What we know:
The structure holds 2 protein chains of 2 kinds. By secondary structure, chain A is an alpha/beta fold. In chain A, helix 19 packs across helix 20 (491-518). Chain B is an alpha+beta fold. Chain B has a single domain, classed as SH3 type barrels (Roll). Chain B is built from 2 helices and 6 strands. The A-B interface holds A 95-96, 98, 100, 131-135, 138, 163, 165, 247-249, 251, 283-284, 287-288, 291, 308, 310, 313-314, 317-318, 321-322, 411-412, 415-416, 418-419, 422, 428, 525-532 and B 16-17, 27-44, 47, 49-51, 53-54, 56, 58, 60-67, 69-70, 73, 82, 84.
Amino acid sequence: xxAAPRPGSExxxxxxxxxxxxxxxxxxxxxxxxxxxxxxxxxxxxxxxTTLFNALTGLRQKVGNYPGVTVEKKVGETYSQHGxxxxxxxxxxxxxxxxxxxDEAVTRDVLLGRRADTPQPDRIICVVDACNLERCLYFVHQxxxxxRPVIVVLNMMDLTARAGLEVRPAELEEAFGVPVIPCAAVxxxxxxxxxxxxxxxxxxxxxxxxxxxxxxxPAVAELQAxxxxxxxxxxxxxxxxxxxxxxxxxxVRVAGSTPLSAATGAVLENWRRRWTGQGTDWxxxxxxxxxxxxxxxxREVIRRTGERGPSLADRADALLVNSGWGWLAFAAVxxxxxxxxxxxxxYPMNLxxxxxxxxxxxxxxxxxxxxxxxxxxxGIIGGAGxxxxxxxxxxxxxxxxxxxxxxxxxxRAAALMDRPMSRVGLHGKSFIPLLGSYACAIxxxxxxxxxxxxKDRLVTILVAPLMSCSARLPVYLLMIAxxxxxxxxxxxxxxGLMFLMYALGxxxxxxxxxxxxxxxxxxxxxxxxxxxxxxQRPHFGEILRQMLERGWLFLKNAGTIILAIxxxxxFLSTYPKHPDPAASPEVQIAHSFAGQTxxxxxxxxxxxxxxxxxxxxxxxxFAAREVFVSSMGVIFGVEGAEDDTAPLRDALxxxxxxxxxxxxxxxxxxxxxxxxxxxxxxxxxxxxxxRETNSWxxxxxxxxxxxxxAWVVTFLVYQGGRLLGF
Amino acid sequence: xxxxxxxxxxxxxxxxxxxxxxxxxxxDEGFCQRIREMGCGEAALVxxxxxxxxxxxxxxxxxxxxxxxxxxxxxxxxxxxxxx
Lengths: 726, 84
């Protein structure tokens, strides 16, 4: 057996009384470092890490992305007891340094100093859930191997009594030799003590030690030596990295990671081959060895004070996940959420719409008529309005996502939905983003961040726009009104047709998810293992912060791109000018680039039953689907088409092909609705998918496959209908 | 590990309210490693709370939900008495 080096033995006497993290070390005061110290905040998912980050940094946060990956980078600033600024990086939640997802890979790479874009943290704050200490300490154990100064925060101490546990921080502190701070971040308890520990000029290094199992030890030593010599790693980091590399499952590599040298790669390959030949279970052996140490430690640190029979939470879980009541509760929660996103959001959306219209009117009054005024009112204000109007739906969706996560219900909903979702190869967690996409694909796509598996997340993003969003409603309503005019047709028939469109989109989403999981993003139906966090009261402050953060990100990132595209679309529908300055708007738009595009598109869309005027609508509604209605209003010379569809409906019913045949036959109306069910007529979604996938490859693929599918299905509907005599 | 005196049962078939000891993991290596890292490795005690399609259980103080495929990959020996 090879004993691991004891990090604590470097520069500190392990036998000395430990720690003095509040009092400091008399006589050893040094000048504070001139550079701002960098703290990394790490921990398992659901351990309250982000709550602690928010409590420490308040509003002094910057949210961005790690270059090349979709993982969010959150950096904040806090102050020591002496008023010195300290940087805190909130790293993504991870169960282990052996990464299994891009999020965990970023955490691992930052801690190991592998990322050029992020400095290696000077100190590490490990947040652990005091109610789940044994499991959380596995990650802490790996981090202590890094030999960096560590502070352990025992969060959720307020919940231990309810869980029938008595956790003794002093015992843990004694065992690890690093400061251990009991804390309840939600209530703000323990923050002063944490800040005091963070303010110390020196922190003791961990004095924990464990014995690497004998079959693995020579490989660790050889790999460590190679990492020091060939990759320039410090010895302790090299040892920790050697342990990770040997587990073989630490295979997730993300953009920005420094690759290993060829020499180290060869050593690694050699050992893997040898073990595979011998049938050594080195991965399981390493994990077991760590857990044996942790299990022994937990016996000292934790005392059970209550019975271990089924708790109230256990009974609630049995009801919410494994019974018919669970489906009823789920349906009720979803109905409320759906209602809020659809109905309640309408009021602020109308308000924003009115404000934007008022602003445009004021600009019209203040500026002389001309192209510049049109650019400001139609291009800039119209484009910005088209973005801001989605904000209430986004905020409401994230309010619900926050409530469900904060109370602990989200994990139960994902567990419940796993069965139907797994039939098409998706994870239970894909359900919430898809549901949100009925309101708007943008918040739905943003909500996919809760899905750990990169392929599952991408499949969910790719199919989310197929769920009929609220922007399709005006198109459906106009087409149904044109197809079934007047009161003679019962409302239930119209509602049934509308429901058919929603069902078609949903079936399409599930069908394509099934297809992608078997072809492009091949992967087995996920083996789902989901931790069910404790039930808690919602933390409204946290939820509000998350809503504002998401809302601001949406406005900042999608808004800039959407605004630019809006201006381009305005240009296309305004230029070139008709030679006659008095030409009507419909003549002008027919003469514009958009009109010309419509005519160019006509041969392509004629097999679908569409003429060039519908083609213009398809082009302009790429800004937002509902623009189709206002475009039809302009083309057919009907004012205020958005407010009252009756005159436009009549104009559409009167529209004809050059040979006098009616243009908007019932079959064409149906075909147009089917086209909008499948087509990716939304530049906002393209922009957001680009942001979420960090490349143009996936949004362009999505645009192509959805538009292609829309054309094919519409063709089949129209031509099939004609063959049947419609 | 010494042979178990009790027959091995997939976790999904462990009756609700009963406790078992994990003896073998049969999923792919990545899955096995992750559940070991989450504390559900060989020798860990697992108490089934409810369910067969979606197994809810408690391991090392944490509550976990496992779908049928995941629960089928975890073989346990059924212990006659819950540990206190």
